[in-house]
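Minutes, project check-in

Agenda point 3 was the complex the collaborators sent over. CS summarized: two entities, 557 residues total, and the question is how they sit relative to each other. Sequences were read into the notes so everyone works from the same version.
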Amino acid sequence: MVSRFKWLGWLRDHGRIAVESLHYISSRLGTSFLVWLLVGIALALPAGLWILQVNMAEMSADWQGRPGLSVYFKMQTANSQVQDAAVLLGRQDIIDEVVTTSAEEALEEFKSYSGLTGGEGGLGDALTLLDKNPLPASLRAYFVPGAAIGEVEHLINLAQRQPGVAEVVVEKTWLERLHELSRVVSRLGAILGVLFGLGAILVTASSVRLAIEGRLDELRVLKMVGATQGQVRRPFLYFGALYGFGGGVIAAMLISVTLVVIEPPLQSLLGSYQRELNLAGFDPIFLLVLLGLGSVLGIVGAILAVRQRLKDLEIF
Amino acid sequence: MGHIELNHVTKRFDNGHEALSDVSVEFAEGSMTFLTGHSGAGKSTFLKLLLGADIPTRGRVLVNGVNIGAMSQRRLPYYRQNLGVVFQDHHLLSQRTVFENVALPLRVMGMRGREIARRVRASLTRVELLGKEHLFPRHLSTGEQQRVGIARAVVTRPKILLADEPTGNLDPDLSRHIMDLFSRFNQVGSTVIVASHDVSLIEEMGMRILHLEQGRVVSDQPGLNQQAHDPAPDQTDVEET
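CS then shared the predicted structure for the full assembly.
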């Protein structure tokens, strides 16, 4: 029974302090807004980079870019020479798969991709006017994952020595670059997340420290009448949580405004690759995590400030 | 809880100043005692040790047999919830109403709102301030502010009531009124220790008087209805008055 009363008292104390903290924050709206803005910017940068990284990773996964090597043959090269080269390259350890495309298949593919298989006045018409197929035979050899640069160089030399070979291209597709860029963004986001998270903690700690300085008399009285350490520091933990939560709201607003601003040019860019813009990551779970993270960082900042200032506070 | 004993207590500060020197004294449960002495005699340090706001350099401060100096930081707040403390400058919270100031110790104890309201009203009635609970301290006279401080100290019905120069800023009539209040709380069972340098007023009260000089108890005058306390054997400079 006593324990139940103790818990009820504890809950009542939390409720009262939560209301008082809200009142304190709202009665100093100018200062509070500045703190929210600072914490919000600190949260928005790494959170925005995270959204960018998620979308880049999704794009590269969606289009399944695989690193490899393209070999283009001279015109009129016999299919048997193309097949021989494919077999030779296929035997190399760093090659996972070889796909050949004859000149005829290349022409069909081109027609299919351009969507112009017969309409009047289009590229399809232009192709029918040519005497011969302008496209060469080619093959594409895909590397096994983690192929070393030195081995790739050896493979290029080998391919170039094959009869009928006009050109060997080791080209990372832009998707591969996107994949690597996404890894860079991911690491950058992690580093910035730590740095700006620290910034958010320090901003909150400074603000809570100011609040403590303004209420030292009250804290002395509280200690005098028998408030526990938890009761003394509780209001400041609420301040920290509210500062952090508000910062999270500002961060969410900043990110959503940024997404609205960059959406048209991004849509246009993706449209040129026949892709549609489907932004991932900015969902309710992301918002909850952002608000929760802001609150937690705020509480951590408040704990630092409280520990530092209240440790040796004398009653009188 | 209310029996207090200081056992060869010495308090020396980091700068070498000895605020209390080998003080041994006992306060019976339900007793009322005045601590007198000039400024710097050690009265406030004496009260600080009882409050657990400081620890003795040597010796023991025992409250009902429990050594306060050795009490953990975790337990100390619960010990303080059994004390009432009154200061010369009230230490009232200016942003809170009279009601909220008096209710503070009860909120700390986790009491329910209805019980808090009942006790605060009872406490304010005792100090004759009922009806002023919605005012802020700045709207009250110095004497009224002091009475709010007393109401806050007694609202938890403490077993021990400590006061540090509670009449320092008050005129003689108000001072007498405040001392009468302490006397009434003593009559309902609280152990009361009041530090004051207002000798004439203290002598009027007819209670036990401990006189401190340079950190030592130099006299221990019993109250009108009390036996003289034996001075500690090693305190050779104690005078019986």
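Noted in discussion: The mean pLDDT of chain B is 86.
Follow-up: revisit at the next meeting once the mutant set is ready.
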